[in-house]
Amino acid sequence: MDRLTIIKVGGKVVEEPESLNALLDQFDHISGNKLLVHGGGRTATEVAKKLGIETKMVEGRRITDADMLEVVTMVYGGLVNKRIVAGLQSRGMNAIGLTGADLDLIKAHKRPVKDIDYGFVGDVDDVNPAELRLLINENVVPVIAPLTHDGKGHLLNTNADTIASELASELSNYYSVYLFYCFEKRGVLVDPDDESSVIYDLDLALFNQYKNEGVISDGMIPKLENGFRAKMKGVKEILITNPENIATGRGTRLV
Amino acid sequence: MDRLTIIKVGGKVVEEPESLNALLDQFDHISGNKLLVHGGGRTATEVAKKLGIETKMVEGRRITDADMLEVVTMVYGGLVNKRIVAGLQSRGMNAIGLTGADLDLIKAHKRPVKDIDYGFVGDVDDVNPAELRLLINENVVPVIAPLTHDGKGHLLNTNADTIASELASELSNYYSVYLFYCFEKRGVLVDPDDESSVIYDLDLALFNQYKNEGVISDGMIPKLENGFRAKMKGVKEILITNPENIATGRGTRLV
């Protein structure tokens, strides 16, 4: 099977012009098929604030009422996505920006209300990569915004890590998929203040131990849970690292 | 050659939920290949206002400074585009939302400053429909936002009527193209207050006469000039009408 590299980037990396340019330069050096999944939460929070819309987060996840859905549709689907597309085009990569609604790529349902009402947040049901594969096979580089749809005309906000792992899992049926979660740090750290404390090989037992000990916490937990799920579904390699180490392959490897 | 219907919609039609739904229902009834080009100026003005950004228009065209470029990227590329895509998907059409940056579809250059500095407004240089045709031939329905790019990493704001006529002209090399400009009225009117005064057949001589007499004025002039240019480049039929008359084919026909 052909290799497909999926890069997920979130946080400051994708939202500040300088680090975004550095990322796109790194991305340019990846050979073969590639696909980028991005976040944009900081910009969404900023735009929401300017529009007088309050951002509410629960356990690192955004509560998405109707107004906030408009904001993330604008920011993820428009501003952040199209900036990346234009930046890739300028580097000679034939990028296309997509949400889960485009090409019916990712169908989801609105998360049922239990303790918390997350609002218009989507849990993924189905990835339909038929036309996406057609594009990838034409050397097109898909750039995916973290939005899905319910097939009934509604867009939904879906976590970008989840989008990346769902796409990686489904596309493992057709490609040898290498999934990189990129963020500011060099990997999962034992000591968050010490960049040299990267955990290089992380298996499920060690993950559970670190989780219980509180070494791994907060947003890193769902990211890693997503990663291990994707690993079990056939994704060839999963690495958590910073953009500088896409080329070296150094960082935390899920094993 | 296969038939391709291109519908350009702007104004209130595309920006109010009820009229948008009516439009998408009409659009659903078009058989064969189809493509939608949309505007979104009212929403852009509204969002800009909420963000404290003043909208300046010259001869119906938006002055697009850096802040306004962010707004139109969010509103055209994100909010309006993805709402339409989700709405078409819910009706069983496999829509994909695109700007001119996606797939390198429409390259433009920043309009040179003469009397007026329009800012980040793009004049079209080149339409590259290779991957677009691939998608159309797979029964995908492209939904095009009025944004272009300069190939150097910059997005540009480009009039939606122009986008529609440029796409129609280029695609006439591959399809028998029917181009509909849809807006609130039943066609070009001799008396703007009388919906029954539709000019059914409009040729260039009559257009110039009406233009000189002031019967046709304002935004209708560039729309018609775009239309006549597209007609001369091989677009099979060009009609100016409202969404209700897409099916009947009644309205102002450029001959």
From TrEMBL, chains A, B:
Domain Aspartate/glutamate/uridylate kinase: 4-242
EC number of this enzyme: 2.7.2.8
Compartment(s): Cytoplasm
Gene3D superfamilies attached to this UniProt entry: Acetylglutamate kinase-like
InterPro entries per the UniProt record, alphabetical: AceGlu_kinase-like_sf, AcgluKinase_fam, ArgB, Asp/Glu/Uridylate_kinase
Site (Transition state stabilizer): K8, K223
UniProt keyword terms in alphabetical order: Amino-acid biosynthesis, Arginine biosynthesis, ATP-binding, Cytoplasm, Kinase, Nucleotide-binding, Transferase
SUPFAM superfamilies: Carbamate kinase-like (SSF53633)
Protein name per Swiss-Prot or TrEMBL: Acetylglutamate kinase
Protein residues bound to substrate: G40, G41, R62, N157
Organism: Draconibacterium aestuarii
Any GO BP annotation: L-arginine biosynthetic process via ornithine
Gene Ontology MF terms in the entry: acetylglutamate kinase activity; ATP binding
Origin: domain of life: Bacteria
